[in-house]
C-alpha cells in the first residue's frame, strides 16, 4: 500500500499495522515502558505498538505526550511508524524526537489499513 501525504519525519517502514479508531493520548494512554495501549476508549486497548505501524486518527491530550513517544523509543518499544489522518503538534514533535516516520495526512489511498494486516508503507518520494 502506498499512502500519499505530507511527511513530518522521513523514512521507510514495513510491518504489521495496528489501528486505533479513536484519537490517542500518549500521556496515560500508552505505557512508555511496555508500549501497551492503556486507553480504555481505544479498540486497541491492551495491544502493543512495539514494532507496529501505528495508525490512529490524531493525538490528543498533554504536550508531555511528545516525550512519552521519545521514551517509547529509548525503551525499545516504539512503533516502526505512525500514521495520522490529522497532524497535530503532540504526535508530530514526538515523531521527530523519536525519529519515527510519520506522514501528517493520509490523503487519498485505496482502502484503510486493518488490524493484523501486513503492509509496506512508503513515506515521501
* Assembly of the depicted chains: single chain
Under CATH at level 1, the class stands as Alpha Beta
Strand content: 15-25%
List the domain count as a whole number: 1
Instruction: Enumerate how many helices there are, as a single number.
Output: 3
Going by CATH, the homologous superfamily would be Phosphohistidine domain
> Which fold does the CATH topology refer to?
Glucose Oxidase, domain 1
Strand order of the largest sheet: 4-3-2-6
Shape descriptor: globular
Overall pLDDT confidence: 78
Order of helices and strands: EEHEHEHEE
**Any guess at the CATH architecture?**
3-Layer(bba) Sandwich
Alpha-carbon distance between the termini? 14 Å
Low-confidence parts, pLDDT < 50 over ≥5 residues?
100-125
Q: What profile does the largest beta sheet have? A: 4 strands, mixed
Radius of gyration: 13 Å
Number of strands: 6
Percent of residues in helices: 10-25%
Amino acid at each position: 500500500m502506498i499512502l500519499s501525504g505530507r511527511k513530518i519525519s522521513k523514512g521507510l517502514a514495513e510491518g504489521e499495522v495496528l489501528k486505533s479508531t479513536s484519537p490517542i493520548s500518549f500521556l496515560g494512554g500508552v505505557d512508555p515502558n511496555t508500549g501497551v495501549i492503556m486507553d480504555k476508549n481505544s479498540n486497541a486497548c491492551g495491544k502493543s505498538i512495539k514494532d507496529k505501524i501505528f495508525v490512529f486518527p490524531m493525538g490528543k491530550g498533554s504536550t508531555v505526550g511528545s516525550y512519552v513517544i521519545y521514551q517509547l523509543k529509548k525503551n525499545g518499544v516504539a512503533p516502526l511508524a505512525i500514521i495520522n489522518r490529522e497532524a497535530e503538534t503532540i504526535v508530530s514533535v514526538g515523531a521527530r524526537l523519536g525519529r519515527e516516520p510519520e506522514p501528517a495526512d493520509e490523503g487519498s489511498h485505496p482502502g484503510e489499513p486493518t488490524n493484523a494486516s501486513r503492509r509496506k508503507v512508503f513515506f515521501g518520494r
